[in-house]
Structure formats: C-alpha cells, structure tokens
C-alpha cells in the first residue's frame, strides 16, 4: 500500500459535524418532538456523544430548562454526583415548593452534609427528585441530557428511574447515551432503559460506511488520502469514527507509510485502548494471537499447523478476556474488533512478525496466501519468491480479486532483481493495472508515478503514462501534459503508439467534443494495433470507433461493431465497459431492442462481478438501470441506479455519470427533490472535469427533473443548452439522450409552440433516418400537445391515442403512461366526464411514484386552470388562457412575457389568436368579457 504524501497539505480540523447519522438523528428528532425520550447506545468511539450534543443543541432551544450530567469511570463510585450535576444549579428555584422532609433529604444528598443514603432517606429522596422535576416542568418543558450513562453512580440512576416511571404526561424528556459492546449480545441497553421513561426510543449507533469514513477524514483535515488507504482505515477501524480518526492521524503524522501487504500503523492511543486486557494473557497465548492476526482467515487447525500446539486453549483464554469472539457454527478465530488484530500486529517486533509469516507460509492451504506470507517473511531480492508472488497475483486476478493481485504484484516487484524478466517496473505496472480494475485509481496513479520517476525503458514509461491518463477518468483535461511526453517516449513503435492514440481518441471525445477527430484517432489506433499484432488493443480501438460512430449516427456503425465482435476475441476486452459487448448493448438499447439489451447487459454484469472489474461493474449497473427505466420498471431501475451510485462514490469512478442516471431514476420512481440535487451534482462534476460529452447528458437529466417538478421554464433553460451543446458536438442520434420530447413539452407549457414544433421536426428527420421508433412515438406525443395549444383538440387526442398504443407495443411503459396522462389532461379541457384512471393504473404498474402523485392530485383537484372561465373562454388553449388572465390583471405585454418566460413577440401573437377566437378587438374587451361572465 502506498500513501500519497500530498495529503499533508491540510491537517487543521474543522468544526464538529455529524456524519453518517442523518437517519438516526431524524428518528430521534421525531421522537423528541412528539414528546418521547431517546436512549442512544453503541460501542466506545462510535459517536454517541456527538449525536447527543447535536440533538441537545437542536431540541434544547425548544424547551424551558435543560439539565445535564456526565461522568467518568473514576467518578462512578461517588453517590449522588450525577444528581448534583443535574439539579445543583436549579434546585433553589423550586425548593420552596417541596415539603420539608423532601427538601431536607434532597439538600443532604446534593451537598453531602448529613450523610444521606437511599436506605435511610429512600422515599423522601425519591419523592423530592420527582417533585423537583414536576415543579420545573410546570414552568416549561424540561430536557434531561445524560451522557455516558454507564458511568453514572447507581444511586443517581435509581433516583432518575424512579422519577421517570412516574412523570406520566409531565413535559420532561430524557436524552441519554450509554456505551454497549462492539457487537450486541441480546439487549444490552435494556437495564439502562429502566432509568428512562417507558416511551423511550433506543437507537443504536452503527458503524460508518467506507464513504462516510472518507467524508469524516476529509472533514477533520486528513484530505487527499488514496481510496485504497481509506479502504484499509475503514476495515481496520470497523467503521468506528474515533478509531478511524486516530488511524488517519497516525498516517498523517507518519513519515514512512506501510509497505505493500503490511497493515496500517496503529497509534499508541489506540493500542492502549484495545489491548488493555492483553497483560492477562500468557506469553504463549499472545504469540498464538500474533499468528492469528497475521493470517487472512485463521482457524484452530491453521494455528496448530503453524506450530501453535495449544491453539484451542490459548484462543479460549483470549475469548474469555473479550479479545476474540467465539462462534458456535464456525471454526474461524475472529477478533472482537479488527483493531485488536491490527494493534497486536503493530505491537510485535519485526522479528516476531517475520516468524509468524514464515510459519504461515508453510501452514496455509491457499497458494496465494502462502506466497504472501513467504514475501512478508523474506528480506531483500529473491527471484524465486518474486516468481511465486507473480504466479499468486495471476491466480488472484483469475479469481476476480484484482485488489489482492495488485498487492501481490507490488510485493513481487519488491523482491524482483533489476535484471530479471519480467523486471520490477513491469510487475509494478501490472499491479497498477490490477488496481485500476479494482477501482483503486489513486493507488494505480501512485504506482505509475513511481515507475516514471525511475524507468528509462520506453515501453515501461508509455505504459506508466497510460495508467496516469486512465486514472484521471473523465477528467482527462487534468493530464493534458502527459500526452506529448507519452508520444515522445513511444517514438515510432506501433505498439506503443497504439496506446497513446487510443487515449487521444478518448480525449478528443471527452475534452474537445470533436466526434470526427475522435473517430479518426480510434481508427488510427486500431490500424496501429493490427500492424503490431496487438489484438487486445485493436479490439478496444474498434469498440471505441464503433461507439463514436453510433453517437454520430454514422452509417458505418453496424459494420464497425461487427468488426469489433469478430474472432479472435480477448475475454477481458469482451466484458470491458469499453469493449464491443458494451457498444453492442448501447446499439441495442438505442434501437429499441430492450429485451435483448437487458440480456446482454445482465451477462456482462455477471462476468465483471466474477472478475472483480469494479469500474465495469459501475458502468454496467448503470446500463441495466437504464434498460429497466426504458421498460418502465421504475422501482427496479431506482434500486440499480442507487447501487451504482454507492459503488461510484466508494471508488470515485464515474460519479458524474452515476449521479446523472440516478437522477433520471429518482425522477421516475423516487423523489423529485433528490433527482434535482443529483442532476445538479452531475452538471457541476462534468463542468469541473471539462467533460463536455457528459455535460450534455447531465443537463438533460436536470431538464427532465425540472419537468417532473413542474418547472417548465427551468426545463427549457437546461434543454436549450443541451440542444446547443449536442449540435456543437455533432451528436446526431436522438436516441442517445432522449430529451427532445421533454423540451418540446416544456416549450408548449411556456407558450412557445412554434419552437416546440421546430424541435419536433428537426428530431423527427434524424429519427426517421436512423429508425428510432420510440423517439418517433414520443415526438408524436409532444406534437399532440402542440396541436392542443393551437386549439386542434380532436387531432391532438387522436395523435396521443396512437402514440400511447405505439409506445405500449415497443415496451416503453413509462412513456406509455405519460401519453395516457397527457390524454386525460387534454380531455379535461372540454365538457363531459374525464378519467385519470388509466394513467394512474399505468403509473402504478411502473411504480412511477412522482408521476402517480401528479395524477392523484389531478384526480382530486382537477388540473390547474387560469382564473378566466366561461363558455366563450373555454375555447382558448392553456397559454392563451394564461395570457388573457394576466391581461385581466392589468399586466403589460412586457410584464406578461417576463412572468411566463416567453418573448414579447409571442405575447403579441398569442393575443392576436385570443382576439380572433373570442371575436373581440382589444385588451379592454378581454376585461369586459371576464367581468360580464363574473356578473352572470
């Protein structure tokens, strides 16, 4: 493992915030707001006190009195200490309301004078606490905040429990925190609930996820940590915030990061915390635990094979001390917390560690594990050890464990002599490629930079530059300086030039948005690879060329796809997210072959998961989610999209693309506000990365979310920009983004039917040429709305009915439901019964919740109408009604244009149509007509 040193640029912590506890705090907040009490519990360092402070600060503002107490383990033997913390400063305010015996008992307990005890003054003291709380509550709500309940003295806990059980409807709420073990054994917190009211909600603080640990480390100033390091911190800390921060601090302060295969350095503070029971172990038991900590999955049998003859008895001794967890059905020796294992290993000397690895190198049954232990037990260069590690790395790669392969590859490089074949740099570069496959881009980049600092061989240098460029992902503009250096290193070698021109093709596509240049570079890379006999990179280049031609609507696209699918194939390219299989999937989904597309992408997803290809997994999860979305399976699509986004955030791969797709899924089957937030995030990331290709898609997602949210002007702003971008990029195929119908619909809503028709006509020409049937059906739905806006209601209804039938036959369930919804809305504009039942049924079948909510609102309230009404005015289209209503309010043409987000010229043209339909001549006549209708 390599730690980048540039993360030392910021070590200043920022103010405390609560990370990863939003759902927990929301539940506790609701409980407190509803008049209940809350008990927060979890292991040491899990963040209980932070949650308690956040809730107390928020809820404390809504109450009259806040009573606080906390204690330490050394104070737990002092009677009534917690009671004094709670009541010492407020008792004088209400003491005069207590009966004399109660006042005397309470004063004695709080001051320590008179040697009050629960045995002697029991009832009087209990009643005094109850009476005091009731008296305080009579003046306003009371909040009792008690942290570290496990250290409160038993006398105070008993008194609190007595009062809590008798407060009834009194406005006294308790907010408490208590330490429980790392893993719950039964209901550990039950006995502490006896000190709280009966309606107390117990909430457990669970471990943080890897992404949340990364956020916490970044917030505290430990920034720019490689994701592989964050992964190790998360694993070692078990998601415990305190442990994670201490590990992050230790790495921040360390000048010698751990070598590959070695665990993280464990600071003394944590060793003391987790190993305080280690002194009770015998020397032999401690050695046995060290061997267990060095192993990947230790069992008693493995420990015995490694020379620990009394493994069962010694692990039982450790389990009795709480260092190990015994499992009835599993023979695995498991530490009670990952940090105990790490601390034991860190505590051992270098000689002791090597001895443990040497024992395991012969005892372990798995050849990968044996090779790893052999490397960690060996010092210096050793070609035989390096060869065994190289074989183990290949085996790990074949098993679908590229992260393990990367670690083993670096170990192999460390033991490889400089004159060996393969050499140390070649092994490092293979490790970097494995790290990329595993989604550990920072790790891969660091390895590549290490090679570039040392290597002189052109092949090693070009391949290292390719790793640097690949690790940049869609932010290729950030590594522009790498391209001329890579070309210089490549010279006239066709194999090396293949690699550079393939990346130049991606740069032309993502950074420049130049499809023609991208296609040319892709074709050149394919030709160079063929000359070099490099079938793997020839296939990748052909797949890229096919993808570009697909987006361009180029007639050669099907033929290029066929060339990319021709045998012989490379198995890893075949399932790559940049391979021909992925391009074929894109062609299928754009060609409305949803069933075949689902079958193709599902098979690809299964294969990359088997191989551990994380970047491809993120990509194919999005592809499957998109397929389900097109088919109208909104719930399934949302689950897949969210899974893709979680994985993207964990790895830092494709976050903009996953946010974009998840926005579309949220707008279809989740929450519109979430859809808007994700789309804006995708736009911001694409702009930051200089990724013009994905910027258009992110803006299309934002426009769609705005449409579902009912913000037609916002939709128009976003999608007009998409139209401009794609015209500049040369994106011809409307099936790529499918935003055209949304733009036309929104243009109608803001009173721009002419522009809407222009969008429809332009898109229809291209869709007809490319045979995009579903796009044509959506355009028909949009044109029906244009016709309706022009008053051609019957024509619009016929067109909508045909569009709905056509979309149903194509299998586009959500678009079919939208057509039914538009048809129901159109029928409300004429007399007679109207039913939204069909639209509601179709949206419900799709689990399209945002759309269903719109339908249900329309079923109850009817569609929103302008305030103008009457038989004559019913002939007006929606925009005409809006303009007429604003005229009635006295608005000028310029004011109407500003409020409806249309041009003054459009207002004038709309008014001309209004005058013609109503048989009037001026704005004054509109006011008179409306006034006459109201008086009638």
UniProtKB/TrEMBL annotation:
Keywords: ATP-binding, Nucleotide-binding. The keyword Repeat does not apply. InterPro entries: AAA+_ATPase, AAA_16, P-loop_NTPase, Sig_transdc_resp-reg_C-effctor, TPR-like_helical_dom_sf, Tscrpt_reg_LuxR_C, WH-like_DNA-bd_sf. Gene3D superfamilies: P-loop containing nucleotide triphosphate hydrolases (3.40.50.300), Tetratricopeptide repeat domain (1.25.40.10), Winged helix-like DNA-binding domain superfamily/Winged helix DNA-binding domain (1.10.10.10). The keyword tRNA-binding does not apply. This is ATP-binding protein. Signal peptide: none annotated. One of its GO terms (molecular function) is ATP binding. PROSITE patterns: HTH_LUXR_2. Coiled coil: none annotated. Residues 869-934 form the HTH luxR-type domain.
């Amino acid at each position: 493992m390599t730690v980048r040193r540039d993360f030392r640029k910021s070590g200043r912590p920022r103010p405390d915030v609560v990370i990863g506890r939003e759902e927990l705090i929301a539940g506790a907040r609701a409980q407190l707001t509803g008049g209940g009490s809350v008990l927060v519990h979890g292991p040491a360092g899990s963040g209980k006190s932070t949650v308690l402070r956040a809730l107390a600060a928020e809820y404390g503002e809504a109450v009259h009195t806040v009573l606080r107490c906390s204690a330490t383990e050394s104070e737990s033997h002092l009677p009534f200490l917690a009671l004094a913390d709670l009541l010492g400063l407020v008792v004088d305010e209400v003491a005069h309301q207590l009966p004399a015996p109660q006042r005397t008992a309470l004063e004695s307990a709080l001051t320590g004078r008179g040697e009050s005890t629960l045995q002697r003054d029991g009832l009087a003291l209990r009643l005094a606490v109850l009476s005091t709380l009731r008296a305080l509550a009579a003046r306003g709500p009371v909040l009792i905040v008690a942290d570290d309940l496990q250290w409160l003295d038993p006398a105070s806990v008993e008194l609190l429990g007595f009062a809590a059980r008798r407060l009834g409807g009194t406005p006294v709420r308790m907010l408490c925190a208590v330490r429980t073990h790392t893993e719950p054994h039964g209901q550990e917190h039950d006995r502490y609930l006896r000190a709280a009211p009966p309606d107390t909600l117990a909430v457990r603080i669970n471990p943080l996820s890897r992404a949340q640990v990364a956020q916490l480390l970044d917030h505290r100033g430990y920034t720019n940590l490689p994701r592989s390091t964050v992964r190790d911190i998360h694993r070692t800390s078990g998601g415990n915030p305190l442990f994670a921060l201490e590990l992050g601090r230790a790495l921040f302060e360390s000048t010698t990061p751990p070598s590959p295969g070695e665990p993280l350095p464990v600071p003394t503070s944590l060793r003391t915390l987790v190993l305080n029971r280690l002194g009770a172990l015998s020397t032999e038991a401690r050695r046995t635990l060290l061997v267990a900590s060095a192993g990947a999955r230790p069992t008693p049998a493995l420990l015995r094979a490694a020379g620990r003859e009394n493994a069962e008895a010694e692990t039982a001794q450790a389990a009795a001390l709480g260092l190990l967890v015994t499992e009835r059905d599993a023979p695995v020796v498991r530490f009670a917390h990952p940090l105990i294992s790490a601390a034991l290993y860190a505590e051992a000397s270098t000689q002791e560690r090597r001895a443990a690895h040497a024992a395991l190198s012969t005892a372990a049954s798995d050849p990968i594990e044996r090779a790893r232990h052999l490397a960690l037990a060996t010092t210096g260069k050793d070609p035989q050890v390096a060869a065994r590690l190289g074989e183990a790395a290949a085996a790990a790669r074949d098993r679908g464990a590229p992260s393990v392969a990367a670690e083993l590859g670096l170990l192999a490089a460390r033991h490889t002599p400089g004159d060996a074949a393969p050499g140390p740099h070649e092994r490092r570069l293979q490790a970097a490629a494995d790290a990329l496959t595993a989604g550990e881009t920072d790790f891969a980049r660091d390895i590549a930079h290490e090679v570039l600092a040392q290597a002189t061989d052109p092949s090693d240098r070009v391949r290292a530059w390719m790793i640097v460029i690949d690790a940049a992902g869609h932010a290729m503009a950030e590594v522009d300086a790498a391209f001329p250096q890579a070309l210089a290193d490549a010279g006239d070698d066709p194999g090396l030039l293949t690699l550079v021109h393939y990346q130049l093709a991606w740069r032309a596509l993502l950074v420049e948005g130049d499809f023609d240049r991208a296609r040319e570079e892709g074709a050149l890379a394919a030709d160079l690879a063929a000359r070099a006999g490099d079938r793997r990179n020839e296939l990748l280049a052909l797949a890229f060329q096919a993808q570009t031609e697909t987006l361009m609507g180029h007639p050669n696209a099907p033929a290029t796809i066929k060339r990319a699918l021709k045998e012989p194939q490379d198995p890893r390219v075949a399932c790559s997210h940049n391979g021909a299989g992925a391009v074929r999937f894109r062609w299928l989904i754009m060609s409305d072959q949803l069933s075949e597309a689902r079958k193709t992408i599902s098979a690809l997803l299964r294969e990359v998961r088997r191989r551990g290809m994380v970047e491809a997994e993120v990509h194919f999860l999005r592809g499957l989610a998109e397929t389900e979305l097109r088919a109208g399976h909104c719930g399934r699509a949302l689950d897949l999209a969210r899974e893709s986004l979680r994985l993207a955030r964990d790895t830092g791969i494709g976050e903009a693309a996953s946010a974009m797709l998840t926005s579309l899924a949220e707008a279809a089957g989740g929450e519109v506000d979430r859809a808007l937030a994700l789309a804006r995030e995708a736009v911001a990331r694409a702009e930051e990365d200089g990724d013009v290709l994905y910027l258009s898609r992110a803006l299309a997602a934002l426009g769609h979310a705005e449409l579902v949210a009912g913000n037609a002007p916002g939709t128009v702003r976003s999608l007009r920009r998409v139209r401009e971008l794609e015209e500049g990029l040369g994106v011809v195929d409307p099936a790529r983004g499918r935003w055209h119908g949304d733009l036309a619909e929104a243009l109608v809503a803001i009173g721009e039917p002419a522009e809407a028709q222009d969008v429809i006509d332009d898109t229809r020409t291209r869709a007809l040429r490319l045979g995009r049937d579903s796009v044509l059906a959506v355009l028909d739905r949009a044109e029906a709305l244009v016709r309706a806006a022009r008053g051609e209601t019957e024509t619009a209804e016929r067109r909508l009915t045909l569009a709905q039938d056509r979309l149903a036959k194509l299998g586009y369930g959500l678009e079919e439901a939208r057509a039914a919804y538009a048809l129901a809305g159109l029928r409300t504009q004429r007399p007679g019964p109207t039913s939204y039942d069909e639209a509601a049924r179709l949206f419900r079948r799709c689990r399209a919740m945002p759309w269903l909510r719109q339908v249900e609102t329309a079923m109850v309230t009817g569609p929103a109408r302008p305030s103008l009404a009457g038989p004559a005015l019913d002939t007006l289209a929606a925009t005409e009604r809006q303009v007429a209503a604003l005229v009635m309010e006295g608005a000028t043409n310029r004011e109407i244009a500003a409020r409806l987000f249309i041009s003054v010229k459009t207002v004038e043209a709309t008014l001309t149509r209004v005058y013609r339909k109503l048989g009037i001549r001026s704005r004054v006549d509109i006011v008179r007509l409306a006034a006459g209708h109201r008086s009638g």
